[in-house]
Design goal:
By secondary structure, this protein is an alpha/beta fold. 34% of the residues lie in helices and 26% in strands. It folds into 2 domains: 270 residues, Zn peptidases (Aminopeptidase, 3-Layer(aba) Sandwich), CATH 3.40.630.10; 116 residues, Alpha-Beta Plaits. The chain is built from 12 helices and 16 strands. One of its GO terms (molecular function) is metal ion binding.
């Protein structure tokens, strides 16, 4: 297969204009988790028009396209893009801004979908490779684990593969810069909730109450000690509080009987994940007991750590180097604190996940904010990366 560069793609203005129009159309019509009906219809129709065999229904709205190369080969790889949007009111003021109140593509999945469709179109037009490519268009990456659901629905039973690859845009990074690493690249993302319960009482007579606010406050103020004193310094972990609920705004003279504290826990290894869960529960109970209050932990393991495998990282780095040059590829990037449900796929199949710079420098608007927008200038870089990766994996 010939190497495809971003420069060559930009020269094909009709191709890039069509992809840009597609990306902005998807952006204008965002759909959140497991409701990507219009988006999956577009994906399925475009793949069908390319002559690519499709399968629908995994994860509800998931679409898988299968393309066999013209040359004999047994190796099978999968390329994955996510399709869902977020529950955010868009504030970009762009002419193609979201037309759906309270929803927007604030993470760039509109761009991810577009780049993979662009690569599929080029590969279908000239399938000069040995083996098979599955194009996985996944729903519900944002918090609801669409990758896990697709797997539970039989993704890798119906479409077994030797390697799986994923891409995400990276705002603030130079346009086209590729970052990845072998081993843990993104964190496990867990949600925890501690419920402190007492009797509550009159705020003027606390001696007649069992007050859960005191142990809850001590718990919140000292929570970071779990990481600083129970997690080895060579490891990394984060525990953060994101929600506190107690009492009623209209009754500040009442000591509440219940305080709920919720947050997130991030880690990169299974033993550290266990430490965080155990530590949060034990610490909450130790804060509560002296005050005659009970503390109950609900710990939900959501996304596992995203762990790249060495051979597939080498392939991804080689493909990226051909696209942007060695100086623009970081194969030992720092681990990211965010989580990604592509991690479920990597638990089943070897693979690699990379971040590609979305440009705009340190002042760029970050993902998951109401003024974020995917940079259309990234489209030719993403398409080039995907096609060159197929060439590396299946070119011989």
């Amino acid at each position: 297969m010939p190497k495809i560069t971003p420069e060559a793609l930009r020269a094909d203005t009709d191709f890039i204009d069509r992809l840009t129009e597609l990306r902005r159309d998807i952006h204008r019509h965002p759909e959140t988790a497991f409701e990507e009906f219009r988006t999956s219809d577009i994906v399925a129709q475009r793949l069908t028009d390319m002559g690519i065999e499709i399968h629908r229904g995994l994860g509800g709205t998931g679409v898988v396209g299968t393309l066999k190369g013209n040359r004999p080969g047994q190796r099978v790889i999968a390329l994955r893009a996510d399709m869902d949007a977020l529950h955010i009111e868009e504030q970009t003021g762009l002419p193609y801004a979201s037309e759906v109140p309270g929803k927007m593509h604030a993470c760039g999945h509109d761009g991810h979908t577009t780049m993979l469709l662009g690569a599929a179109e080029l590969l279908a037009a000239d399938p000069d490779f040995a083996g098979t490519v599955h194009f996985i268009f996944q729903p519900a990456e944002e918090g609801l684990g669409g990758a896990r659901v697709m797997i539970e629905d039989g993704l890798f039973d119906l479409f077994p593969c030797d390697a799986v690859y994923g891409v995400h845009n990276a705002p603030k990074e130079p346009l086209g810069r590729v970052q990845t690493r072998t081993g843990s690249f993104m964190a496990a993302g867990d949600t925890w909730e501690v419920i402190f319960e007492g009797s509550g009482g009159h705020g003027a007579m606390p001696h007649m109450a069992t007050d859960p606010t005191i142990p809850a406050g001590q718990f919140i103020a000292s929570l970071a000690q779990i990481v600083s004193r129970q997690v080895p310094a060579a490891d990394a972990a984060v525990i953060s509080v994101g929600h506190i609920d107690a009492g009623d705004y209209g009754s500040p003279n009442i000591i509440p009987s219940r305080v709920v504290v919720r947050g997130t826990a991030r880690s990169y290894r299974a033993p550290i994940r266990d430490t965080l869960e155990r530590g949060i529960g034990a610490f909450a109970e130790s804060c509560a007991a002296p005050y005659g209050v009970t503390a109950r932990l609900i710990y939900t393991r959501r996304y596992p750590p995203l762990v790249n495998t060495a051979e597939e990282v080498q392939q991804a780095v080689a493909a990226a180097t051909e696209v942007v040059g060695e100086d623009m590829v970081d194969p030992e990037a720092p681990r990211a604190g965010g989580s990604e449900d592509f991690s479920f796929m990597l638990e089943k199949v070897p693979g690699a996940y990379v971040m590609i710079g979305n440009g705009d420098g340190p002042d760029a608007v970050f993902v998951h904010t109401p003024k974020y927008d995917f940079n259309d200038a990234l489209i030719p870089f993403g398409v080039s990366y995907w096609t060159n990766l197929v060439a590396k994996e299946l070119g011989s």
